[in-house]
Write a structure and sequence with these properties.
The complex is a heterodimer. Chain A is built from 4 helices and 13 strands. Chain A is α+β, with helices and mostly antiparallel strands. Chain A has 2 domains: about 150 residues, no CATH class; about 55 residues, no CATH class. In chain A, the strands form 2 sheets. Chain A has an 8-stranded antiparallel β-barrel with strand order 1-2-3-4-5-6-7-8. A 5-stranded antiparallel β-sheet of chain A has the order 9-10-11-12-13, with no helix packed on it. In chain A, a hairpin with a 4-residue loop joins strand 4 and strand 5. Chain A is globular. The two termini of chain A are about 15 Å apart. By secondary structure, chain B is mostly beta strands. Chain B has one domain: Jelly Rolls (Sandwich). Helix content of chain B is about 0%, strand content about 45%. In chain B, the strands form 3 sheets. Chain B has a 5-stranded mixed β-sheet with strand order 3-5-10-7-8, with no helix packed on it. In chain B, strands 4-11-6-9 form a 4-stranded antiparallel β-sheet, with no helix packed on it. In chain B, strands 1-2 form a two-stranded antiparallel ribbon. Chain B starts with a strand and ends in a 6-residue tail after the last strand. Classes of the chains: A alpha+beta, B mainly beta. At the A-B interface, strand 9, strand 10 and strand 13 of A face strand 1, strand 2, strand 7 and strand 10 of B.
Chain lengths: ~230, ~100
């Protein structure tokens, strides 16, 4: 769906109206969706370290999230092939969100489908899912994928950038294989000891499934996931 | 083993055959890419049928040659590097080693 404005307009306000209408049509919300956002009185720590700390997948690869030493904020660190380098440090302020000095805020949401950290690049409610929490499983081991090199089987003649990959196994992530494509370290979930699947609990799901769970609904309300046309 | 990521499917490079002088690779009926590890160093020549594409990766997995962006049908290669051949089902690639070139 596209919207064309004649003159100046507020795209976020329009997106809000579209989202609210879509959620109401789906029977997932009644009235203004902004009522679902936490109040400014929501004090830290509403979220326990056990809930938010852990490893996350994102379009930029593998991340680790930890509370700061004084437990007043979070440090989001990116895996660089050797260890985890701090990438974002955000302090808890209000509305259930962690804020960087530049004003970007990161609310945490969890539910039946999984846990996510959203990103709001400005002071508005418009944002999107950036980090999805991984759920390490010791049941499926991954030694078969450790230290291997991979050649594509289905690269198109027209793909602009051909690439190969290496896979590593991390002791802190049982049940996952980490694929390095030359730029990012992407965790892949093992579906069995000899095959992998994508490790995004929320992103690949159809819109109705995403919106049905509590985490998905919260994510949708805060990130506009439902009106981005997934599913 | 099957490795899958965002629509891409991979084969284990440990299972690749060595590509020597005069080696020929043919795309199977499923149209999957073919590949191998180069068994020689020097200048390699590539001749293929149909609208194909040859990519050579270095040992560090960087693209050392891509027929999509290079007008040449030859490239300087090193033993142990990786070759990827993309083409229609039935397409053939012949790799010529330094001793085969005139």
């Amino acid at each position: 769906m596209g919207v064309i404005f004649a003159g100046t307009a507020d795209p976020v306000a329009v997106a809000d109206a579209v989202l609210e209408a879509a959620l109401e049509d789906l029977g997932l919300a009644e009235g203004p969706v902004t009522s679902a956002v936490l109040s400014p009185e929501a004090e830290f720590p509403k979220i326990s370290s056990r809930q938010i700390e852990g490893f996350y997948n994102s379009p930029l690869g593998l991340f680790q999230v930890q509370l700061t030493e004084d437990k007043s904020g979070i440090v989001i660190a990116v895996f660089d092939g050797i260890g985890y380098t701090p990438y974002i440090t955000a302090a808890y302020r209000a509305y259930g969100r962690f804020y960087t000095p530049s004003g970007t805020s990161y609310p945490f949401s969890e539910g039946e489908l999984g846990s996510v950290i959203l990103g709001h690049p400005d002071s508005s409610d418009a944002g999107y899912v950036i980090f999805e929490k991984l759920m390490p499983e010791a049941e499926v081991d991954d030694p078969a994928f450790a230290g291997r090199t991979w050649l594509l089987r289905n690269l198109s003649r027209h793909d602009l950038l051909p690439w190969m990959a290496r896979t590593i196994a991390l002791p802190e992530l049982p049940g996952y294989v980490v694929l390095f494509d030359g730029t990012y370290y992407t965790p892949l979930a093992l579906s069995d000891p000899s095959s992998t699947k994508m490790a995004f609990p929320l992103y690949p799901r159809p819109v109705r499934d995403v919106c049905a769970g509590r985490a998905g609904r919260d994510a949708a309300l805060q990130s506009r996931l439902c009106v981005q046309g997934r599913g | 083993m099957r490795l899958y990521n965002h629509g891409y499917v991979f084969r284990d490079a440990a299972e690749l055959s060595t590509i020597g002088s005069g080696a020929r690779l043919q795309i199977g009926s499923a149209g999957e890419n073919e590949g191998g590890r180069l068994g020689f160093s020097g200048k390699a020549g590539f001749e293929f049928t149909g609208p194909g594409r040859v990519v050579v990766f270095s040992g560090e997995l960087e693209v050392a040659y891509d027929s999509l962006t290079s007008p040449e049908r030859e490239a300087a290669v090193e033993e142990g590097w990786y070759l990827l051949f993309i083409g229609e089902p039935g397409a053939e690639l012949t790799v010529t080693a330094p001793g085969d070139l005139g």
